[in-house]
Specification:
single chain; alpha+beta; 9-stranded mixed beta sheet; 4-stranded antiparallel beta sheet; 21 strands
Length: 955
């Protein structure tokens, strides 16, 4: 009887004579039986799939969510004058009759146009109705000649007249009454009512009942009577901020004369707010009245996907088809102006710079997760190898076995993946659903397909019982060699492209470039697997001659590790590389902000005058030295704008530099404390011609002072002596040293001299160093010294560099990538050890019958695990360092570290290897491997040898 005739319905590979119904009925008990047989393995697989699908689904949602928050933040935090869309039009068509002109600028006529404009705004622009406004205003302020108005320099104030909509909804009446249009105000009306804000009334001395005459075209003035004083309800909103004169007056300087001369004079500029129906009266003035509609965009419903549409819509409104529609509604001369496109462009540039860097983290963690899932499938397949081999020997077909495995896996994996997707959707909002669904589906498909496929392919041909398959005897095939060479070419291409183009190059995210760390880790894993047998062979020879058996057995067991050990090593290398890369990114962000804060302040604290280098009070340095937390104080005399001698070939262009008078010893200590290049204080000796000039003695202009200069100044001055005319004295200088950077003026060319050699000596700046200078005591010391003195602290400047939503989101993704990489590395170690755990347990049981002690068993398992653990740790450390070194020229962290923050940001922030990010994960792998081996040895010692050996040989 054949094998197929021996089988019953439902047996893999057998003939099902009862049809589809019987097959469906037989399938359920098989799956239920399998899940009951190994519930722990099924639960572990479900948990791993749940975690991986959650991370896979959360990644695209997190990226989209922080891009959405960033776009909304950029629009909301921008000045309303920049984000508003303003439609303006001059006076109504003069060919219209007076009545029609009056009706066109009254409140009802403007409101009708306002409604039409808001309806015609192209998507995704949505008007924010409460923050939008419209009205009429004069664009050329009128001079007010009333003598009771305040005049700071004797100049007449100038007033703007405006009729903003909804004045009573955006302000609170403080005194008087709301202005009203008495009767039908027309172009011939000669008296209207107005309101002013409390700040305007206080500055210009306006009271309720005051009248101001405004000239008109026919010579008879328009009288504006102030009937109320108001207070803005929300002064920061666009209603008041687009035209700041609405809420407060401004002191305006007179324009400079062509010949220059004395300081400018100032006069007040303010606004009078009229009721809407009084707008026709403004048509009679000579101050160029203009109709306006200010439409504030509603950012609360914008998403990161709206960036392209938003830019296109704004461009069309400014000079495209939508502008024609606006002119059909408003008038042929209407224009729309806005800086919203600049805001969106800035956001788009930051997103383009941050996106590729974040994709590197996503690709790295995705690769680690995929490898760990494959390792899990290999572990499950290895545990069921004998079972499936028996089914295959009984006539089971590969298709039937694969179908059964697929069904078993799907029953466990699909609910776990769906639950992970649900948790990701609940945890991260403001994003589309389909990218998360796709990511979770890919995770589930990888597990459902890879496990049955890999397991069934191992049973295509019968395998000899007891055949060795380890790293020591394995010989790579030609196919494997070709595949490895292909991966090597891809890795070289990805690294070269990343170094040449960088992560902030235009054209979007390139997955090949972003996968460069993964490809480098993959190549390193393949190389290490090929080299792994060599040190084992070299170490086994001397160990074999030792008296103890532990060393020899551990190396022999390590050498017999399965040749499929490439997967654990690959997972560890990619995880360690990703963790090192992510940790270095986060450390680089912190270092860049620290460097920027130090460049802005120059030391831990800086004390100087409010308007540049002005002399500080005597004795202030001694007061500052007594403040808690202050270690040292460097007094510096700073003079900007010192003209350098002309150089041949400069075309007569004047070049200036800053002159710094310092005490060489204290300034050298400042350079050491701030981490700058060592300052050669010995070269600025105040001896010979540079010696201090006695008081009452006229110094010679031929004195030669040694100077330490910046590179460009040193190149200009050369080795010769040059005359310098400065407020600190007239003398000659000679360059004796070059310093690339200095704390006092980080972004300016400079010359540093010994302050004792200067004729007019004075202290303009104090640089304070210390562990934690007390800010309150420093400011108290400066107040006691008198004068208006500014105190800047490095810690406060560092605190000003806050994350924008995009930067914060990218930083959180990298922190999550580091945590996920560490977690998957631990799983890789555990899976690698669990794969051979039964075999090691049986080995210990056999050796215990031969006299092996518990302590020796622990040492044996620990020594057996160490070669691969050390290989992964050392390889991960070296690969992480090499990856960062190779990719650093192409990775610019400026957008992650500095964009959108206070202070001056460096144009380039390079990636640097962080020692802790390299060492800690590598040490964790070694410690974990040793700990798992020790726990396994302890657990095996608790079980008797008979328990392990009573079933016979496990092979």
């Amino acid at each position: 009887m054949s094998a197929d005739q021996n089988q019953t319905p439902g047996t893999p590979g057998g003939t099902d004579r009862t049809g589809a119904v019987a097959r469906g009925a037989a399938c359920a008990p098989w799956i239920r039986t399998r899940l009951r047989t190994a519930p722990g393995a099924a639960a572990a697989l479900a948990g791993l799939v749940l975690l991986t699908s959650f991370l896979a689904a959360a990644f695209p949602r997190s990226v989209e969510a922080y891009e959405t928050r960033g776009l909304r933040h950029d629009i909301v935090s921008a000045s309303p004058a920049r984000s508003i869309l303003e439609v303006t039009s001059p006076l109504p068509d003069p060919e219209l009759g007076p009545d029609m002109q009056d009706a066109a600028v009254r409140g009802a006529g403007l409101a009708e146009v306002d409604t039409a404009l808001k309806k015609m705004m192209p998507a995704p622009i949505r008007p924010d109705l409460p923050r939008s406004s419209y009205g009429v205003h004069t664009t050329d302020p009128a001079a007010a000649t009333e003598r009771w108005l305040d005049r700071p320099n004797g100049l007449d104030p100038k007033l703007t007249l405006a009729t903003p909509s909804g004045l009573d909804k955006h302000s609170r009446l403080r005194s008087g009454q709301w202005p009203k249009a008495r009767g039908d105000v027309s172009v011939d009306s000669r008296e209207v009512e107005a309101a002013v804000t409390a700040e305007t009334a206080s500055a210009l001395k306006i009271k309720v009942g005051s009248t101001i005459a405004v000239p008109t075209r026919n010579g008879e003035p328009l009288t504006v009577r102030v009937t109320g004083i108001i207070t803005p309800l929300r002064p920061a909103e666009s209603y008041w901020s687009v035209e700041p004169l609405f809420k407060a007056p401004v002191l305006t300087p007179t324009p400079p004369t062509p010949r220059g001369g004395s300081e400018p004079l100032f006069f007040w500029t303010a606004a009078l707010l009229l009721p809407q129906d009084a707008a026709p009266a403004l048509l009679a003035t000579m101050n160029k009245p203009e109709v306006y509609w200010r439409i504030a965009p509603d950012a609360s419903r914008l998403t990161g996907l709206d960036v392209a549409g938003l830019r296109s819509a704004v461009a069309s409104l400014e000079s495209g088809p939508e502008l024609l529609n606006v002119r059909e509604t408003v008038g042929p001369t209407a224009a729309l102006t806005t800086s919203l496109d600049d805001i969106v462009l800035s956001h788009s540039q930051m997103r383009s710079a941050i996106g590729p860097v974040v994709t590197v983290a996503g690709v790295g963690i995705g690769a680690v997760a995929a490898v760990v899932l494959l390792m899990t499938g290999a572990l499950i397949g290895g545990r069921r190898h004998s079972e499936l081999a028996l089914m295959r020997s009984r006539g089971g077909s590969l298709r039937g076995i694969g179908r059964r495995l697929f069904t078993e896996t799907a029953v466990t994996v699909l609910p776990a993946a769906a639950l992970g997707l649900l948790l990701a959707v609940l945890a991260v909002g403001q994003a589309r659903l389909w990218p998360a669904v796709t990511a979770a589906a890919v995770t589930a498909a990888l597990v459902c397909v890879a496990l049955p496929l890999r397991t069934t392919l191992q049973h295509i041909r019968p395998q000899l019982h007891g055949a060795r398959d380890d790293m020591m005897t394995a010989r790579p095939s030609q196919r494997r060699t070709i595949a490895e060479l292909t991966l090597l070419v891809l890795a070289i291409g990805a690294v070269a492209a990343l170094r040449r183009r960088g992560t902030d190059a235009g054209g979007g995210t390139d997955l090949l470039v972003s996968s460069a760390p993964v490809l480098v880790g993959l190549i390193a894993a393949l190389v290490l697997v090929r080299l792994y047998p060599l040190p084992l062979r070299l170490a086994s020879r001397p160990v074999a001659r030792l008296r103890g058996a532990i060393g020899f057995l551990s190396l022999a067991r390590a050498g017999r590790a399965s040749s499929s050990g490439t997967l654990p090593l690959l997972a560890l290398l990619i995880a360690l590389t990703t963790a090192a890369f992510g940790g270095s990114v986060l450390a680089g962000i912190g270092d860049a902000r620290d460097d920027a804060a130090l460049a802005a302040v120059g030391a831990d604290a800086r004390i100087n005058g409010p308007d540049g280098p002005l002399p500080l009070p005597d004795g202030l340095a001694e007061r500052v030295r007594r403040v808690d937390g202050v270690d040292d104080v460097a007094a510096v005399q700073v003079e900007f704008g010192v003209v350098l001698p002309a150089a041949p070939g400069d075309g007569g262009q004047k070049k200036t530099a800053a002159l710094l008078g310092v005490d060489p010893q204290s300034y050298a200590r400042l350079a050491r404390a701030t981490g700058l290049k060592s300052f050669p204080a010995h070269r600025l000796k105040a001896t010979g011609s540079a010696a201090p000039v006695p008081e009452g003695t006229d110094p010679s202009r031929d004195r030669v002072l040694p100077v330490i200069a910046s590179p460009s100044v040193a190149e200009r001055l050369g080795k010769r002596e040059h005359s310098i005319d400065a407020l600190a004295g007239d003398f000659k200088v000679k360059v004796v040293g070059v310093q690339p950077l200095t704390s006092a003026v980080p972004n300016t060319d400079f010359m540093i001299v010994n302050s004792a050699s200067l004729t007019a000596r004075q202290t303009t700046t104090l640089f304070v160093t210390g562990s934690q200078p007390d800010a309150e005591e420093l400011r108290a010391a400066t107040r006691d010294a008198g004068g208006d003195i500014v105190v800047q602290l490095r810690s406060e400047e560092r605190g000003a560099y806050v994350d924008s939503p995009m930067q914060e989101g990218a930083g959180q993704i990298y922190a999550a990538a580091i945590a996920a990489g560490a977690g998957y590395a631990l799983l890789a170690v555990l899976l690698s050890l669990l794969q051979t755990a039964p075999e090691r347990t049986t080995l210990l049981a056999r050796l215990r019958t031969m006299g092996l002690t518990t302590r020796q068993g622990r040492r044996l398992l620990a020594f057996e695990a160490m070669p691969q653990a050390l290989l992964a740790a050392v390889g991960g450390l070296l690969v992480g360092w090499a990856t960062i070194t190779l990719l650093a020229p192409g990775v610019n962290l400026a957008s992650l570290a500095m964009s959108g923050t206070a202070g001056s940001a460096p144009l380039n922030v390079s990636l640097r290897a962080d020692l802790w990010s390299l060492v800690l994960p590598a040490l964790g792998v070694v410690v974990l491997a040793a700990s798992v081996a020790g726990v396994q040895a302890w657990w095996a010692s608790r079980r008797g040898s008979i328990t392990e050996l009573r079933a016979g040989d496990s092979r």
